[in-house]
Known about the structure:
Blueprint: H1 2-20, H2 27-38, H3 45-61, H4 64-74, H5 76-83, E1 102-105, H6 115-130, E2 134-139, H7 149-162, E3 168-171, H8 176-188, E4 192-195, H9 199-208, H10 219-230, E5 239-242, E6 257-261, E7 275-277, H11 279-289, E8 296-298, H12 305-314, E9 323-325, E10 329-330, H13 337-345, H14 360-365, H15 370-380, E11 388-389, H16 392-402, E12 408-409, E13 411-413, E14 415-421, E15 426-431, E16 440-445, E17 448-452, H17 453-457, E18 464-467, E19 472-478, E20 482-487, E21 498-499, E22 506-514, E23 518-519, E24 522-523, E25 528-536, E26 547-550, E27 554-561, E28 564-571
Parallel strand pairs: 1-2, 2-3, 8-9, 10-11, 12-26, 14-20, 18-21, 22-28
Antiparallel strand pairs: 4-5, 5-6, 6-7, 13-25, 14-17, 15-16, 18-19, 19-20, 22-25, 23-24, 26-27, 27-28
Helix pairs in contact: 1-2, 1-3, 1-4, 2-3, 4-5, 6-15, 11-12, 15-16
Bound molecules: adenosine-5'-triphosphate (ATP) and magnesium ion.
Amino acid sequence: MLSKKIEETAKIYALQNAVQFNGKANEKAVIGKVIAALGKNGFKPKEIIPAVKSVVEQINHLSLKEQISELEKIAPDLLHREKKERVFKLPPLPYAEDGKVVTRFPPEPNGYLHIGHAKAAVIDHEYARMYNGKFILRFDDTNPENAAIEFYDAQREDLQWLGIEWDEEYNTSDHLKIHYQLAEQLIRQGDAYVCRCPPEEIRKKRFQRKECRCRNLSSGENIDMWNDMLSSGFSKGVILRLKGDLHSSNTAMHDPTLFRIIEKPHPIHGDRYHVWPTYDFAGAVEDSISGVTHPFRTKEYELRDECYFYILERLHLRKPHLMEFSRLSIKGMPVSKRRIKPLIEKGIVSGYDDIRLPTLRGLKRRGILPETIKQFVISQGISKVESTAPFSLVEAINRKILDPKTRRYFFVPNPVKIVVKNAPKKRIELKLHPTKDLGKRVVETGSTFYIPKDDVQRMKTGETFRLKELYNIRIEKISDDIITTQYVGEELLPDTAKIQWTTDDHICMSVFVSKPLFKNEKYDPDSLQRIDGYAEKAVADIYEGEIIQFERFGFVRIEKQNSKIVGFFAHK
Ligand code: ATP
Ligand code: MG
């Protein structure tokens, strides 16, 4: 009776595990599950383990099809849970009406986009599509110090790569005339004033919550000074400030800057303007006048929300439903343009597409798919809770997408030569994927092979191992640079290591492997490694940019650099 219960439980978990892993249940995994399920009812591992072992063996003799139909019979719920892909979806948007939602992604064209931007762009884009609304790409280019044409183009390209399509595109800088009119309106209403105090003075007065002498001039005088500002009558340092509330507990309301003078020519407008709006002003005004209904911002702006709404209120402009989510951060990676830029300028990384960076270009280069990034950022959701995700979450999604469609080859890192005595000459066809029809390659073998040094270091004389997909060999002698072995037959032996190999007909290649750029917040100089090795000859025909899997090594994206083939390691 009791053993029947164990058997039934074991059967369910063995079937579930087998279906999940291509027809082969793992004994240990099933034992673990059965003990967890029955242990608390007083069953002892001593009774459970042998019973589970025998059930697993029986189940592993069934074909995958038979396993599926068995599981369907005894635990259909488990089968369907297995089959159902985890689909990540965004929660409904508050106050959203079908056909009327307008969102925008507002990058500053001052660098390359990273995975944090992807979070913002994907969420904005997804919501517009979810509600059949409109999605706007807006370049927030009102700081000519930082903006450059290179970045507008790169950001556009990177968004396209991510699969984001925008219904409208414009530059905030194209609306400067409107911004000036609105500023004038604020000044006339007495809601803004030109301040000529030096920055230290402004800081001090803000801290003391005291008004400066500029605050109480008449709006007529302010209009004159504003016009002077616009026509370059004033030198740098003069600003237009919002008349906020110096006594507010929110420091963002202490008369923030709305416009400042920047002399550097703008990449699009040249030296036509030198008075530029701040983010507080331009962000609020643009969201409102471009019809955005649900602007998303990262949580660090939360304090500035009051200022956002206050500016719109004083201008009698429509107030959108401001939404906030946490900034995305990833362990050991700089997810911020401000942190990435100096790494490039100081030559610590090779450029915006260095594979250690979380830039979209860096991720693309190491074989992370746009679909992965999309799924990952949606899985992070729109909560405001700050958290640091490990990069392994990105890798897991990527692996799942790549695994069924990626061709597999042999690559031998740090190769060691082996000679096989009595080796039969072979001409074999090897499948490029064990279960999917992704084609084949033909390999001819003689008596010389190369295998990875790591494997060699674990070997002893007299041991037998299998050259993967080929035959078994026994080690006769291990010396520093060559291993002598003996051909010992072809049948699959249990518990025999299967090792990938190449023949003399190989190509030499290097694979670059990245580790987190920062270890305990400090730059790790060993974060980029190069592994040299031999790849089988068929790798020479792989097209530039293809992602393949090197068996027992990992997923690698292939590039051709001056006729040499180079790989970038994505993940295991
Ligand atoms: P950075 O520090 O990388 O320069 P930023 O916010 O100044 O960040 P912007 O180009 O101004 O960069 O950002 C465009 C949009 O992307 C903004 O809506 C911003 O909130 C969002 N964004 C930027 N970084 C992240 C991140 N790490 N996580 C989520 N959203 C982000
Ligand atoms: Mg910014």
